[in-house]
Write a structure and sequence with these properties.
This protein is of the alpha+beta class. The chain has one domain (3-78): ORF SCO4226, nickel-binding ferredoxin-like monomer (Alpha-Beta Plaits). The chain is 29% helix and 31% strand. The chain has helices at residues 18-31, 56-66, and strands spanning 3-9, 34-40, 46-52, 72-76. Strands 2-3-1-4 form a 4-stranded antiparallel sheet, covered by helices on one side. Helix 1 (18-31) packs antiparallel against helix 2. It starts with a strand and ends in a 9-residue tail after the last strand. It comes from Ruegeria arenilitoris. This is DUF4242 domain-containing protein. It holds the Pfam family SCO4226-like.
Length: 85
């Protein structure tokens, strides 16, 4: 499945409760996407999230349903240091 990085900029510091985590999982499942992991900036106002998804539109739909930003969606391929060994 294709992978994408989503850059999200938040007006306030990001905080997720248990109910938020359940809702995110439910909506992601319904849209056919998987949140792999995220990096959170030191000020907790920006995230870079790695997802697997059939297409960028499914990521936009999930973000809209969750009322969270999806400012930049970039398709990515995985590389690691092992390819240079």
């Amino acid at each position: 499945m294709p992978r994408y990085i989503i850059e999200r900029n938040f007006a306030e510091q990001l905080e997720l409760g248990d109910d938020d985590k359940v809702k995110i999982k439910e909506i992601n499942d319904e849209e056919g996407i998987e949140w792999i992991f995220s990096f959170l900036s030191a000020d907790k106002r920006k995230t870079y999230c790695l997802y697997e998804a059939p297409d960028a539109e499914s990521l936009r739909k999930a973000a809209k349903r969750l009322n969270i930003p999806a400012d930049v969606i970039t398709p990515v391929d995985r590389i690691d240091p092992g390819i240079f060994a």
